[in-house]
Design goal:
The chain is of the alpha+beta class. The chain is built from 5 helices and 7 strands; from the N terminus they run ββββαααβαβαβ. α4 links the parallel β5 and β6. The two termini are 14 Å apart. Bound molecules: magnesium ion.
Length: 160
């Protein structure tokens, strides 16, 4: 049996004015962005934690502390590239990625394919190995109230 690992990541960020909304490395036109030390890319942060977890590494905050000025307003795709570097060093390659965004607004349907293609490009794999779904929380809880966005990510990695 091939040596493989599963990783799971979760992240959430609060909406904030005067910030771009960046999800999966794509800027989404919307009146609010996400509050964060970095660009607040909730999906990429969940993906980073899933990859790190799969490889038995520590969480995203260990590698990119939110009190480090290096990562102030940082493009999270750079964080993801560094995480891919870390798992590559450990002898792993990404096999597939499956993500869910939980938000009431904005509607993600027009952007999902772009996000999938961007994530596939960042992970250097075919886009049919990447899945991104978006769903509402039926108006329940903080995502349902439109206070912010949550994201989950599951990955498998295999020996390179
Ligand atoms: Mg985050």
């Amino acid at each position: 049996m091939t040596d493989f690992r599963v990783g799971f990541g979760y992240d959430s960020h609060r909406f904030a004015p005067y910030r771009p909304l960046v999800i999966g490395g794509i800027v989404i036109p919307y009146e609010l962005g996400l509050a964060a030390h970095s660009d607040g890319d909730v999906l990429i942060h969940a993906v980073c934690d899933a990859l790190l977890g799969a490889a038995g590494l520590r969480d995203i905050g260990t590698y990119f502390p939110d009190n480090d000025p290096t990562w102030k307003n940082a493009d999270s795709t750079i964080l993801l590239a560094k995480v891919v570097g870390l798992i590559t060093e450990k002898g792993w390659k990404v096999n597939n990625l499956d993500c869910t965004l939980i938000l009431e607004k904005p509607k993600m349907k027009p952007h999902v394919e772009l996000i999938i293609n961007r994530l596939a490009e960042l992970l250097r794999m075919e886009s049919d190995r990447v899945a991104v779904k978006a769903k509402t929380n039926e108006k329940m809880g903080f995502t349902g109230a439109g206070e912010g966005i949550a994201a989950t990510a599951a990955v498998t990695i295999v020996r390179s």
